[in-house]
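Hi all, posting the design record for the shared folder.

TITLE: backbone redesign
STEP: 1 of 1
STRUCTURE INPUT:
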């Protein structure tokens, strides 16, 4: 192994850890002595299985409740397929944005700006180019390997990506607050408002998986890997700009301090934005308009930066009981208000965990992006789902709570998540 690659994978030398990181644990006994699976795979199982198990339990519980609620009301049978409806309860998991991803996985892209007249808030027809390509590419790959259709492939990609995301959240929280904090953080992310899209035909789980591991790589000074993950995340969602900025700023600080030389942090900075830039440029080139992607987002979906004016206006409408604003959905809107009320407290808890700079920048920019754009207000719970460090701060505060107490504390949210993070999002709103 070369010296560069050895340095790239090392993060345990004295003085190299981020503030708040826990000291390295003593070496585990061999698999023969403990009865555990030997080798590196066994060590990974021992480390991550509790967190992934806790996450899977709360997700499976919430999904079961979600499907039971759908079966109880039967409202999905009265709605259009793709718009909260379908022939079976589980079809709802492939509606709304999921329909677009399935179309892309089957047919690819045809970026166009087609004028639409007669609608006050829309000037262009909707087009699949608004959705970034990484997730549907993986759907197509899984379909080719397994023979599953777009819906099944999308669910497989999302579930697997959610487990990778939960593992990344665990690894970061474990580094900051220990094993118990890591397991708790993974479970909390599965209970977060908006988490109903984690096991649906949505790209959110994939994005959080890339973001969490990119941040972890920055914390462990694996700069090239962090840069590559940020680059790939830029092919998944436009909000990857928050991750790109976080990795780049952390790399710039490392450059100024000369803690990791020049080549690796500088390379990370240079490569991070090209996934995002490349896709937006490709769409503009295909449309014959370099600003085509942004025109499509505003003209077809009414999504654009407004400095938070629409969020503030909608908050005032909701708390005063006025439901006449664009895309008002009372139940998801009230859930969004509750999350905004809790947000300052979650940020205080994150501050007490003493997170490294990369987590602060990523969290702050993710929140700013969610609150400073014109959007469907009830979707704030989903737009803040990528802000996984908020879960870490709460987990840090709960790390000394007894296991039996934690189970009791999470039991009702795991059940209720099927409603507030699933049914309310897909059936009472538009995720």
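Okay, here is what came back for every position:
SEQUENCE:
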């Amino acid at each position: 192994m070369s010296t560069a690659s050895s340095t790239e994978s090392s993060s345990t030398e004295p003085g190299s850890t981020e503030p708040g990181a826990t000291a390295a644990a003593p070496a585990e006994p061999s698999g023969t002595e403990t009865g555990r699976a030997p080798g590196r795979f066994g060590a990974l199982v021992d480390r991550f299985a509790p967190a992934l198990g806790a996450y899977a339990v709360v997700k499976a519980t919430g999904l079961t409740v979600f499907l039971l609620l759908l079966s109880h009301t039967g409202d999905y049978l009265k709605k259009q397929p793709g718009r909260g409806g379908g022939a079976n309860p589980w079809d709802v998991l492939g509606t709304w944005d999921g329909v677009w991803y399935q179309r892309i996985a089957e047919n690819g892209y045809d970026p166009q700006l087609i004028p639409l007249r007669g609608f006050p808030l829309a000037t262009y027809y909707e087009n699949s180019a608004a959705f970034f390509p990484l997730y549907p590419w993986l759907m197509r790959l899984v379909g080719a390997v397994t023979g599953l259709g777009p819906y099944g492939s999308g669910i497989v990609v999302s579930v697997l990506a959610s487990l990778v995301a939960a593992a990344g959240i665990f690894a970061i929280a474990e580094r900051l607050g220990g094993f118990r904090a890591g397991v708790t953080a993974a479970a909390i992310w599965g209970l977060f408002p908006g988490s109903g899209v984690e096991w649906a035909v949505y790209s959110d789980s994939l994005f959080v998986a890339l973001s969490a591991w990119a941040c972890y790589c920055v914390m462990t000074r694996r700069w090239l890997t962090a840069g590559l993950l940020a680059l790939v995340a830029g092919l998944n969602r436009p909000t990857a700009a928050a991750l790109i900025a976080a990795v780049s700023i952390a790399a710039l600080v490392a450059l100024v301090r000369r803690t990791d030389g020049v080549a690796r942090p500088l390379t990370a900075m240079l490569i991070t934005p090209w996934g995002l830039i490349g896709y937006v440029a490709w769409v503009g080139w295909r449309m014959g308009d370099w600003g085509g992607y942004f025109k499509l987002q505003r003209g077809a979906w009414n999504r654009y930066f407004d400095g938070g004016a629409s969020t503030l206006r909608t908050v005032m409408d909701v708390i005063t009981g006025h439901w006449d604003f664009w895309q008002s959905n009372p139940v998801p809107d009230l859930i969004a208000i509750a999350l905004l009320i809790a947000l300052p407290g979650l940020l205080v808890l994150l501050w007490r965990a003493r997170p490294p700079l990369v987590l602060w920048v990523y969290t702050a920019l993710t929140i700013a992006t969610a609150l400073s754009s014109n959007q469907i207000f009830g979707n704030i719970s989903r737009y803040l789902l990528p802000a996984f460090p908020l879960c870490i701060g709460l987990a840090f505060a709960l790390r000394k709570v007894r296991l039996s107490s934690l189970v009791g504390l999470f039991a009702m949210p795991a059940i209720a998540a099927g409603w507030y993070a699933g049914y309310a999002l897909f059936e009472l709103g538009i995720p």
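COMMENT: The two ends are 47 Å apart (CA to CA).
Let me know if anyone wants the other runs.
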